[in-house]
């Protein structure tokens, strides 16, 4: 890092700004993946209830995607809290990462509409695997290139790295399960809510 001028770096403020904006939009758009079910025949409490059953899986996918995006957003902010300087490579890792975030509403909708099919679940889980992998790459690059606070505790560095690897491991597991039990493969993400507390 000493070989570079201060002008070769920028702060994380602009990354935080665009990250918050894209996450806010993505987390809002995924609610549109549910849709209001249409009632066939005469409208009654029973027919409305029956129609609501048809959107049970899309609703589960919406909640799951919303929580996962919140977890990724939190993890990214934790990383950027310790990153003191940003170079062009780090910047572009984040831009590509945000591209995968922006795709989540699409992958959530196709996964919810075609829950029993392998291809739709692969799209959703590969989307999340890409997010998790780039989140890890982001932290790996920052620590290797000395972009983080030099006084940062090594235990904290390792903890953030393990959290990123946990995201990668769970999303990779879900991707493999897409080929075996496509309809229920996404339930493995529930493990993140429990396992993250032990990292």
Automatic annotation (TrEMBL):
This is Potassium channel B446_29190. Keywords: Ion channel, Ion transport, Membrane, Potassium, Potassium channel, Potassium transport, Transmembrane, Transmembrane helix, Transport. GO terms for molecular function: potassium channel activity; proton channel activity. It is found in: Membrane. Its main location: membrane. It comes from Methanobacterium congolense. One of its GO terms (cellular component) is membrane. InterPro entries: TMEM175-like. It catalyses: K(+)(in) = K(+)(out).
């Amino acid at each position: 890092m000493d070989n570079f001028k201060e002008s070769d770096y920028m702060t994380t403020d602009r990354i935080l700004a665009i990250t918050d904006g894209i996450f806010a939009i993505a987390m809002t758009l995924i609610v549109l993946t549910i849709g209001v079910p249409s009632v066939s025949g005469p409208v009654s409490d029973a027919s409305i209830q029956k129609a609501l059953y048809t959107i049970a899986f899309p609703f589960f996918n919406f909640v799951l995607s919303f929580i996962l995006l919140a977890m990724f957003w939190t993890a990214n902010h934790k990383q950027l809290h310790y990153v003191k300087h940003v170079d062009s490579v780090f910047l572009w890792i984040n831009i590509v990462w945000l591209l995968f975030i922006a795709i989540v509403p699409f992958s959530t909708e196709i996964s919810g509409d075609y829950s029993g099919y392998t291809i739709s679940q692969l799209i959703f889980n590969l989307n999340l695997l890409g997010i998790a992998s780039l989140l890890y790459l982001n932290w790996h690059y920052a620590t290797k290139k000395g972009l983080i606070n030099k006084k940062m505790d090594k235990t904290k560095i390792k903890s953030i790295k393990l959290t990123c690897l946990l995201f990668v491991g769970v999303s990779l597991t879900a991707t493999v399960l897409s080929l075996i039990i496509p309809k229920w493969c996404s339930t493995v993400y529930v493990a993140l809510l429990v396992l993250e507390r032990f990292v």
